[in-house]
Design goal:
The protein is of the alpha+beta class. Helix content is 42%, strand content 24%. It contains eight helices and five strands, in the order ααββββαβααααα. The longest helix has 21 residues. It is globular and about 60 Å long. It starts with a helix and ends with a helix.
Length: 216
């Protein structure tokens, strides 16, 4: 424990973590280009639903099978798709569009940095398996949040960290005005999390060291 305490108090330790993080991010976003496992054209995908956004006659899904893929479905009757369920999708896969105007929001780069390399326009969606208990609880939270018509977008952002409800044009405006950081993890979130950890480790001797480990 004393050795761990010395390491955690070392400035070199934190410097190495920062350097490693910067090298990792630069390598996997700029140097190494990922080739999608999906080919463009008509496909049938069986995947698990990560997020689901329903609005009028439009359904937006983020699913994962071989990799994450963005799904758009337009129909007069939108099915109820729950997070965590397994679905079969008949769709046409294509590459995300780049920015058509220079120095504006690049949707393709945005998806790439979130490890999403393809989008698909669905023609048919079939539910194969229902979600497990944990995802059922998450769906209850999502449905509760979406019941607030005027603030559901921002509640999804701040509580679940889900930006799929936010229009790209609005997100671009946040970036142009320099306030996009408000949609990410802020000092308030960290302070609240640290407070919870302090209460959790209340009777542990090396409380601060354990909090630092959990934060990492």
């Amino acid at each position: 424990m004393n050795k761990l305490k010395i390491i955690l108090q070392s400035k070199l330790f934190y410097l190495l973590i920062i350097i490693f993080t910067l090298v990792y991010v630069f390598t996997f976003t700029k140097l190494i280009k990922y080739n999608s496992k999906y080919k463009n054209g008509e496909n049938v995908i069986v995947a698990k639903v990560i997020s689901s956004t329903k609005k009028d006659k439009e359904l937006k899904l983020l699913v994962k099978d071989k990799e994450k893929i963005k799904v758009n479905y337009y129909n007069d009757k939108i099915p109820e798709i729950e997070v965590g369920s397994t679905i079969e999708i008949n769709c046409e896969i294509s590459d995300p569009l780049k920015n058509t105007i220079p120095n504006t929001f690049n949707y393709q780069n945005y998806l790439y940095n979130n490890k999403i390399y393809k989008i698909c326009k669905a023609s048919k969606i079939t539910t194969l398996n229902k979600p497990n208990l944990i995802n059922k609880i998450k769906n209850v939270v999502i449905n509760r949040i979406n019941s607030y018509d005027n603030s559901n977008i921002y509640l999804n952002l701040f509580i679940l960290g889900d930006k799929s409800y936010l229009d790209n044009d609005i997100y671009n405006l946040y970036k142009d005005n320099g306030i996009a950081h408000l949609l990410a993890i802020s000092g308030m979130h960290l302070s609240l999390f640290i407070l919870i950890l302090k209460r959790t480790f209340l009777f542990i001797k090396e409380k601060n060291q354990n909090i630092i480990i959990v934060l990492f």
